Amino acid sequence: MSRGRRPKWMIELGKERIDILFNLAEKEFSQHPERSHRYVKLARNISTKYNIKMSMEWRRRFCKSCYKFLKPGKNSKIRLSNGKVHFKCLECGKLMRLPYIKEKKQKRRNKIESYLVKKRVNE
Amino acid sequence: MITPHNIFQHELIGLTVEIVESSHQGLEGIKGKVVDETRNTICLERPDGKEIVVAKSTSLFHFRIPEGLVVEIDGKVLVSRPEDRIKKKFRKI
Amino acid sequence: MINVKYFDFHLKGKKPDSDLALINEAKRLGYHGVSIFYSNEQYNLALENFNKIINDETSPTHLKSFKIDDFSITPGIIIQGKNPHHLQKQIRSLRNKTNILMVDGGDLKINRAACENVKVDILSRPYYKRRDCGINHVLSREAAKNNVAIELCFNDLLKSRNSLRSKIIAHFRDIIKLQRKFHFPLLITSGARTIYDLRTPQDIMALYRCLGLNKEEILMAISVSPSFILDYNQQRKDMVVDGVKIIDEK
Amino acid sequence: MKLKILPPTLRGDKRYLAFEAISQIQLPRDDLIFMIWESCLKFHGECETSKFRLWVTRSWDLNSNNSKKDYFHLKGILQCNRGDEEKVRGALCLINNYKGKKLVFHTLGLAGTIKSATQKFIKPSP
User: How far is B63 from chain A (nearest CA, A)?
Assistant: First the structure.
């Protein structure tokens, strides 16, 4: 069955549904953790069936192997080491590494601009 | 945004719902927030925290949308896996 | 029978005064509701003069059904399509103008197009000018799925004689046989043009009993399915899809 | 466009009635049909005849060799609904004249198919 491209309104609907699901998972995590794991699974189903990329903020909030919802400090550890962000899922112990070069470059550019602005102000 | 026109394709989890009619008399009149959804059932969390699993195809639901509108949906319309509901085709009345 | 309401669903509307005579006669005979059918052009005209007579201009004109002390009158539109495509166009444009939409059967293509269309309410006289009854198991399954009512018109029996009348009765029997198998809504109407074509509900029930219909089926045809059509069309404007309905929040 | 015929379970079941007609005048097909329908209608009335599903399938003319005789001999097959053959047979034998000319109908027999009706009653194969 050819999957092909889904119509536009379907993809919009899928995106909205994924956002709703993750927001709910965020809220529900403190009382009912197993519900938010279930929400992550549902969100993943939608994103795989309709070929929708999850937004950056949500992609980091669930474990890639055991698909559990990760809340920093509760069941996941986030560290920076040699240019990468390490997400460690405490449920299954998986380590996910993500480079953050874009953010570094952005930081350097901001620093240069602030110097330039200061110099112009002094003259 | 959830509108009456795409509520049956949209996410049902998180909406408050009331069961109006059902083949199982005990379920009629129950209110609650939808917590979980599978192909044939909806899991409701009652205000007092108890969870009830309700079959979709045998009852009539009143969903309350965030903006306050109430939509009456026949359970038979919702019978499909949550991710398949988006692409399910319906007959325009 | 507690509060069984009798409906006569197909009266042919021509001039305003003759329609009024028809309505009063139907009311006297014991009917609880009536629906008069006009062609597309005369419909608006009829709507205005109904408004003038009954609600004397107080209520807005877009009202589509009227009540004189719980005797309900609903004007409707009857469509003759030349070919399926032309029929679909007419249905799309006329659906939200009226409460009841009826398609005049007779041509096979029209019968099929009408049965497959959810927006159509009644397919009237599929056997008109035909040697067979106009519908078969394929059409009746579609009619059941889309809730299209098939109408048996009493006027055809009245106006015909001898072999033509017995052929029409044979078509009635075929439609009844199909209805028993596929359970599409059946409708028994008078199709009256003048007051001389109207009969009391009990007479019509007696006549159709000897055509092979039993009591419950006739009651279904005269009172249950017409009232279902009326209620269904009331909610049609806030029905989004087949099972979904918007309720004005409390 | 033709309607698809009904499935066998819904299609009415038929019986074929072979008959012969001896008349003083030539009987074309549509006169034959008119006469049979007339007699059934007069005898049983419209409501009953609508049950019979009458249909004259074929009629054969058998007076080519004896042209000098003063009567015309004709055989034919009439299709009717199973279960109502007696009523149709009764109505057939009540026919006695048509446009002032004398006429008689004999039913030769009943059969379930056209083929067996022709073989048994109309053209007995040697």
Answer: 16
